[in-house]
Amino acid sequence: MSGHFEQIPGGGAAVALDDVEISILRSLAVQLLELIGPGDERVEGEDPLAALFTEGPSEPPSDPALARLFPEAYGGPDADAEDDELRAASAEFRRFTETDLRSRKRDDALAVVRTLDSTTAAGEGGAVLKLTADDCLHWLGALNDLRLTIGTRLEVSDEDESGDLYRLPDSDPRKPMVMAYLWLGALQETLVETLMS
After folding, report:
1. In the sheet where 12-18 sits, what is the strand order?
2. What is the pLDDT of residues 34-53, one digit of tens each?
3. Cα dihedral angle (13, 16, 17, 18), rounded to 10 degrees?
4. Are residues 190 and 5 in contact, defined by beta-carbon separation less than 8 angstroms?
5. No. of H helices and E strands in the chain?
6. How would you class 13 by CB atoms within 10 Å of its CB: exposed for 0-12, middle for 13-18, buried for 19 or more?
7. String of b and e for 171-190 (b: at least 16 CB within 10 Å)?
8. What gap in Å lies between CA 148 and CA 54, rounded to an integer?
9. Span 5-12, average pLDDT
């Protein structure tokens, strides 16, 4: 089970991780939470239906990683800059969806942190993470968001989806993030395979 997910009864999954892997995953999830930003604080007594109509931002994020996590709904980054209709539609869509999307991404990352904080000892400086079916969905979302963020920072494109990344010399300062990116991809892949079996 070491390093890859396996199915457990009840529709969940389990993975054995060592202390270093747990520390890296937790650190990355916390950094993702910081990137996404704080959640909206609910005021006690506030009408819960009013929250459904809270408007979010209408402009795309300037940080490329956030722009990747919260992409344009219409046109995308290569759209003609003169197309006011597409920009207006994207702004409208963003205003009514980004707050919920941020909340979901925050919940996914928090679920990863909470799971890692409540691990059961496996001995030898590691732990076995046992995820429920719901936890698995949060983990899939968080692993995907982490890979998108790291991939954006590394400027990974669809064409070079890891070919050149494997050949980086150890002296390259990007090497640790490349290793994390590839490892997260392997974790994500085994979790998907586990859930589909």
Report:
1. 6-8, 12-18, 126-131, 120-123
2. 999 876 555 456 665 665 55
3. 160
4. yes
5. 6, 4
6. buried
7. eeeeeebbebbeebbebbeb
8. 27
9. 90
